[in-house]
Write a structure and sequence with these properties.
With 121 residues, the protein is mostly beta strands. The chain has no helices and 11 strands. It has strands at residues 2-6, 9-12, 17-24, 28-38, 45-51, 57-59, 67-72, 77-82, 91-101, 107-111, 115-120. The strands form 2 sheets. Strands 2, 4, 5, 6, 9, 10 and 11 form a 7-stranded mixed beta sheet that branches. The chain has a 4-stranded antiparallel beta sheet with strand order 1-3-8-7, with no helix packed on it. β5 (45-51) and β6 form a beta hairpin. The chain starts with a strand and ends with a strand. The model has no long low-confidence stretch (mean pLDDT 95).
């Protein structure tokens, strides 16, 4: 299973961006997908996490009310709609997926390559 993120870029404070994370591979099922970010010199932190049914989503306090995570299970894709962006939102955004390989019943916990988000003041 592989994850590919897209949608990052440079935006002014107050602007919006939409990130996408597409999972590809064969015979797998994803339970939890999440977005994390890492700012320069800081540890990677959780931004949003959503379960397979999309019924439960957790957000970091710093993004509540501004970011919205969603999933399209048919496309194995997760999105992060980011609005009212602030300079402190700058960082590399990583997608994470936890699931299971259907034929082998082996669990996986994988990361995408990351996409840069830069918010200018």
């Amino acid at each position: 299973v592989q994850l590919v993120e897209s949608g990052g870029g440079l935006v002014q404070a107050g602007g919006s961006l939409r990130l996408s994370c597409a999972a590809s591979g064969s015979a797998f099922s994803i339970n939890v997908m999440g977005w994390y970010r890492q700012a320069p010199g800081k540890q990677r932190e959780l931004v949003a996490r959503i379960n397979s049914g999309g019924g439960s989503t957790n957000y970091a306090d710093s993004v509540k009310g501004r970011f919205t995570a969603s999933r399209d299970n048919a496309k194995n894709t997760m999105y992060l709609q980011m609005t009212s962006l602030k300079p402190e939102d700058t960082g590399v955004y990583y997608c994470n997926a936890q699931g299971i390989h259907i034929h082998t019943a082996r669990l996986f916990d994988i990361w995408g390559q990351g996409t840069q988000v830069t918010v200018s003041s």
